[in-house]
Task: structure prediction
Amino acid sequence: MPDKTLCPESYAINKEAAHRETFGARFSDLPSSQAIPVIRKRRDFLRVAKGLRQNATAFLLQGRPRGPGIAEDVARVGFTCSKKLGNAVVRNRAKRRLREAARRAIPRHGKPGWDYVLVGRRLATAAICFQDLVNDLECALQRMHASRNLEERQMPKNRRRDRSGQI
Result:
């Protein structure tokens, strides 16, 4: 790295080039049209939690298709980081990383009309290399939408019961 005192402009340019090499494109370099709708209602999070699950190294991916009559042209995503992850600083950092990974992966590998929830994992979400986080999300989305027919895939028994206790 060049010395800051000699030429501050070239230092800033080289610093940005080093950042791009390490982390890829900056947030502002990506089109804002890739912003994806966010799940904010508790009932939507609970509904997605009853759907399919896919484990990854740094997070748990939950997904479920939305019912008919609801906007089916885009995929929505929600983020959950509990207090088990750490204090507010750690949780917010984990959510920022998950949010950016979702912004990069879901438009390419997610399905329109689906809701996804990314649940952060203790120590792993904030510690894993960002590119590995994006790759894990892409792989988890592909595994979730595997060639098997999704309607034939059964829910785990503990999540198949309705309120009356019947299957």
